[in-house]
């Protein structure tokens, strides 16, 4: 296998909605949404509930992922916007990210339709766990919102503090997340495996079965393998702890973004305060029982644990790929990636990383993010996936 990288197990078709403030305001008028409608979180069982969920996340400046009760509602909501059709899912998009900087890989995905195969770069060796090609598309709809956007509701208004995205899908294949043993021969010499999370699985018996299949898959990697899981905010919240517990003995590192970090911590912290960040990463690390914890934010990314120094190139590539996607979206090449290196570092991120490095020595490696507040139309969808692709690519290159 070229470059010895494997990705599993999520892939899907994304509808990336193009932000339009006027459409949001029309929908607020149609559904008569007030500030009080944003207070509680119930079942996402209608287009109105999709809208109020998005508005709640905008008001609080966070991202999220949801499985509504009906795929028809998801599709109907998407059709109110212009949208781009792309490949989504952490494993699939991370494989594409690695491909953009010249790293080949093998991908096992739970998606199998003609559109997915058409959009996936041919250089990625792909197998689906869904044997019969499905003519039905169950779109994963993303809406990314900008910073500084004033939203007027029926009885008040708010302004978004920062950009982020909210995801919606009801995809039977993603909810089943099948894993096939036909992947085993493709990964026998793979030294790096990047796992996506199981956030869309809603049935505990199904989840436990997939976790057993994941452990079996890991046993078929090359002996000196390194396994990284990119975490997620689970639709069934307590499933996240179950996944961590069951996979901890098989993982080398668990990676998460700032929303997932806060959820695991139980509260928000100031991401530019070294004391708060230091105490928080140590509290989470002590609970996980996984050798390395990786956290990536808009300001910095870091690895904490026994292999922190070994993860230097992974953290670097993760930041570079995510920053390049943030400023250029899907369409960039290796020369654009290299130009990202020349951009200024975030000053607050620089200070935090230097402070934590001094405090923790070899048990921590931190790198500031890029200062990208000048980007007027950023891409926030898939940043974690591209960061994950960078983690895998960096580790594979370190193995060479």
Could you give a quick summary of the protein structure above?
The protein has 14 helices and 16 strands. It is an alpha/beta fold and 400 residues long.
Summarize the structure in words.
By secondary structure, this protein is α/β, with parallel strands linked by helices. It has two domains: 272 residues, Ribokinase (UDP-N-acetylmuramoyl-L-alanine:D-glutamate ligase, 3-Layer(aba) Sandwich); 103 residues, Adenosine kinase, small domain (2-Layer Sandwich), CATH 3.30.1110.20. The chain is 39% helix and 19% strand. It is built from 14 helices and 16 strands. The strands form three sheets. It has a nine-stranded mixed β-sheet with strand order 6-5-1-11-12-13-14-15-16, with helices on both faces. Strands 3-10-7-2-4 form a five-stranded mixed β-sheet. Strand 8 and strand 9 form a beta hairpin. The radius of gyration is 20 Å and the shape is globular.
């Amino acid at each position: 296998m070229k470059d010895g990288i494997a990705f599993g197990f999520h892939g899907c078709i994304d509808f990336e909605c193009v932000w339009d403030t006027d459409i949001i305001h029309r929908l607020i008028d149609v559904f008569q949404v007030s500030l009080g409608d944003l207070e509680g979180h119930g079942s996402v069982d209608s287009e109105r509930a999709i809208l109020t969920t998005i508005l709640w996340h905008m008001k609080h400046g966070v991202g999220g992922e949801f499985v509504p009760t009906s795929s028809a509602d998801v599709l109907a909501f998407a059709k109110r916007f212009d949208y781009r059709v792309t490949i989504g899912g952490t494993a699939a998009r991370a494989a594409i990210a690695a491909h953009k900087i010249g790293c080949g890989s093998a991908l096992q995905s739970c998606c199998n339709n003609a559109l997915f195969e058409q959009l996936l770069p041919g250089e990625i060796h792909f197998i689906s766990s869904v044997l019969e090609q499905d003519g039905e598309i169950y779109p994963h709809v993303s809406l990314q919102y900008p910073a500084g956007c004033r939203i007027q509701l029926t009885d008040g208004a708010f302004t978004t503090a920062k950009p982020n995205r909210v995801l919606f899908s009801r995809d039977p294949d993603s909810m089943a997340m099948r894993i096939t043993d036909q992947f085993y021969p493709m990964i026998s010499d793979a030294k790096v495996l990047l796992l996506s999370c199981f956030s869309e699985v809603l049935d505990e018996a199904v989840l436990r079965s997939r976790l057993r299949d994941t452990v079996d898959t890991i046993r078929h990697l090359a002996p000196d393998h390194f396994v990284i899981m990119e975490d997620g905010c689970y639709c069934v919240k307590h499933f996240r702890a179950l996944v961590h517990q069951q996979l901890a003995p098989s993982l080398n590192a668990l990676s998460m973004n700032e929303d997932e970090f806060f959820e695991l911590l139980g509260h928000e912290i100031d991401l530019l305060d070294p004391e708060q960040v230091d105490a928080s990463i140590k509290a989470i690390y002590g609970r996980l029982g996984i050798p390395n914890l990786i956290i990536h934010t808009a300001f910095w990314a870091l690895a904490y644990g026994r292999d922190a120094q070994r993860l230097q190139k992974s953290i670097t590539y993760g930041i570079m790929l995510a920053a390049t996607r943030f400023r250029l979206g899907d369409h960039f090449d290796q020369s654009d990636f290299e130009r990202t290196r020349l951009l200024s570092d975030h000053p607050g991120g620089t200070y935090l990383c230097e402070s934590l490095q001094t405090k923790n020595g070899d048990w921590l490696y931190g790198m500031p993010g890029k200062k990208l507040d000048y980007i007027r139309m950023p891409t926030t969808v898939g940043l974690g996936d591209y960061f994950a692709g960078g983690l895998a690519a960096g580790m594979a290159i370190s193995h060479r």
